[in-house]
Amino acid sequence: MPTVLTTLATRPVKGLVENHAAYARQHGYAHHVVDSTHVWGPRQPVFHRYHAIYQHLAQTEEGGLLLVLDQFAVVYWPHPLEPNFDGTDVLACAQAGDDTLCNTSMLLLRNTPAMREQMRQLVDRFSHWTMHILEDSEQPENALVAPLFAPRPCSIPLPNGLYPNVQANWPGGSYYESIHTVRPLVANDAPAWRRVEGRWMPPADYDFRGVQNLVEEAAALARGERPPFLALSETGLPPQDELHLNPDARIAFVSIYTANIASYGRIHEESFVRYCLRHGYGYHLYRKVPDFAGELTGSWAKPHLMRRHLAAHEFLLWVDADILVFDQSRPMEPLVAGRQALVANDHTAWNMNSSVVGVRNTAEGHALVEEVCQQIEAAPDRSSVHVNGGDQTYFANVFRARGLITEAQVVDTLSLDAPAIYASADHSHFVHFPTQQTAQRAASMHFWNQQSLERDARQDAAP
């Protein structure tokens, strides 16, 4: 009887372990979980993982298969291991974009004397790596496994047509939107390692949104439904170009989304409409770039939309369309009290993030917004959202020149604008979903918005 082994180096996303367990139950396989989160250090948890794989391989019935899945791997479509992998003693797929590296999110091993010996040798190799005595001790897990378990490209199916393990995303590419068309056994969103100027580097700001999307997608397919991102991609714009709620409120928000991002812009809109109606805040939403913004597009029009509405409110906040209000019960007054301007920390190398920018209706506030407008109008290149740092460069220039990059104006990112890499269902107010492609961003925001609605329902039902 095959065995499914879940190995966890970090806390898994909601539903991941159950995804593995449900697959094992469906086929009558044994299922075991090895948790390495109690093991400290950058290497010891990996070493622990391979000790556990060796242990469970030897405990699998002779000639039986061991399917190893980690915290990045989702059973996407429940193909049985047998007969699909008859004659296979070892299978590891390559990292997308680099066929020399193993994607270790999934390994398939058959318990034979030869495979146990290979596994013993691999554990030996990891012991030298862990103790920094391997010849190239800086290489990642993916590179250490490849010499013993030669990886096969993840985009090539087996002779029987089955895709064993497809990677959703990697630097410069994505299979995310086509995975449902091939229905692999496993889909993963493991971080892709690269060698840059002689140094091995993972993504600097990886987070588990992609894994959560795959869990939700697999669950939808199991229910006979379409992947959530497909339904969201059909979202259209309401007939009105603008929405203005509570236009005379003391505190207000302004934002914009256009038809090309309506799949997640509508989620942002629904979230902020709920929040503003609950607390009496203003909300100015544009569904196309208004005429008064001239030739500016998308986020480049940000300060011009702020300039349009600042005089009508005591405090006005810009919010990007990839932000939603997770904790709808939390008010804005404590955050804006005593501040002339407000901006959040960034989770990367910037000292601020312009996804949320707040300004008080004062002469200084108007002058700040006007200066950002002028700098953006004079920008030599506005050909894409992020060229030369995007609008964030110009907001940061003005905030810095005016001495506003201080604790008095810069709010910690966890309190104001938590990126999904840091967000928590227990503590986050706003949640920000940067860097993802449109379909994945929509799926991520949909999942978090559903959690927010469930949170509201629990609060409303509480005595």
Brief account:
The protein is an alpha/beta fold and about 475 residues long.
Give structural notes.
The chain is an alpha/beta fold and about 475 residues long. It has 2 domains: about 5-225, Spore Coat Polysaccharide Biosynthesis Protein SpsA, Chain A; about 240-460, Spore Coat Polysaccharide Biosynthesis Protein SpsA, Chain A. It contains 14 helices and 22 strands. The strands form 6 sheets. A 7-stranded mixed beta sheet has the order 13-15-14-16-19-18-20, with helices on both faces. Strand 5 (about 90-95) and strand 6 (about 100-110) form a beta hairpin. Helix 6 (about 210-220) crosses helix 14, helix 8 (about 260-280) packs parallel to helix 14 and helix 9 packs antiparallel against helix 11.
Number of helices: 14
- The structural domain count equals 2
Which structural class is indicated by helix and strand composition? alpha/beta
Q: Report the CATH topology name of the largest domain.
A: Spore Coat Polysaccharide Biosynthesis Protein SpsA, Chain A
Number of strands: 22
Q: Describe the strand arrangement of the main beta sheet, using strand numbers.
A: 13-15-14-16-19-18-20
C-alpha Rg (nearest Å):
25 Å
Shape: elongated
Give the rounded overall mean pLDDT: 94
Spatial gap, N to C terminus: 50 Å
What summary fits the major beta sheet? 7 strands, mixed
CATH class of the largest domain: Alpha Beta
Strand content: 15-25%
CATH architecture of the largest domain: Alpha-Beta Complex
Q: How much helicity do the residues have?
A: 25-40%
Q: Provide the CATH superfamily of the largest domain.
A: Spore Coat Polysaccharide Biosynthesis Protein SpsA, Chain A
Point out poorly predicted stretches. none
